[in-house]
Amino acid sequence: MTANQTKQLLDIDALTLQQGLSDQKISLIDVREPGEFAGGHIQGATLLPLSQFDPNSPKLQGDKDIVLYCQSGNRSRQAAQKLLAAGVPEVMHLKGGITGWKQAGYPVEVHKNAPISIFRQVQIVAGSLVFIGTVLGHFVNPGFLILSGFVGAGLVFAGITNTCAMGMLLAKLPYNQVK
């Protein structure tokens, strides 16, 4: 383990996590949204989405070390900062997220009724809106091209800030609330 960013936030790699899980010394928390969790999670993980993350949650109580993870590591760092701000002395998160876990060759559990990933849903919705805006702008009224420009600007903003408003909205839809 190596300290990163703060003296209390520790990055651990997939091998270290796997060993800790085998020894039953780790409480593993997945901070992704329910649809993402259903699409593939590490066995033994507990779901506590960042959008509903409460440092005082009973899911975070106990004598085991807390390890957070998400898709790539960004959201787990945010959740870790919330825990540190709430007074938890040491928090760990999986370096590289579940992507790193998979790259290390470890398995994931998948719910058979999982919706497609939020990322793919964003691609489908954004692409459809751009296409519709372009077609309507060409055949009906050029004013519809604003729709395509608006979606494009939203995607640029999402890329720069690493937050996607469309993804957050899609995550709230009932079919993405798999538990």
What do the pLDDT scores average to?
91
Percentage of residues in helical conformation? 40-55%
β-strand number? 6
Biggest sheet features: 6 strands, mixed
Order of helices and strands: EEHEHEEHEHHHH
Low-confidence stretches: 1-6
Number of helices: 7
- In which order are the strands of the major sheet placed? 1-2-6-5-3-4
- As a whole number of angstroms, the C-alpha radius of gyration is 19 Å
Alpha-beta content class: alpha/beta
Tell me, what's the shape? elongated
End-to-end Cα distance, whole Å, is 32 Å
Content of β-strand? 5-15%
Features of the shown structure:
179 residues; alpha/beta; elongated; disordered N terminus
What does this structure look like?
With 179 residues, the protein is α/β, with parallel strands linked by helices. 45% of the residues lie in helices and 15% in strands. Strands 1-2-6-5-3-4 form a six-stranded mixed β-sheet. The chain is elongated. The relative contact order is 0.16.
Quick structural summary:
With 179 residues, the protein is an alpha/beta fold. The protein is built from seven helices and six strands.
Helix-strand blueprint:
Elements: E1 2-4, E2 6-12, H1 14-22, E3 26-30, H2 34-39, E4 46-47, E5 65-69, H3 74-85, E6 91-94, H4 97-103, H5 118-139, H6 145-161, H7 165-171
Parallel strand pairs: 2-6, 3-4, 3-5, 5-6
Antiparallel strand pairs: 1-2
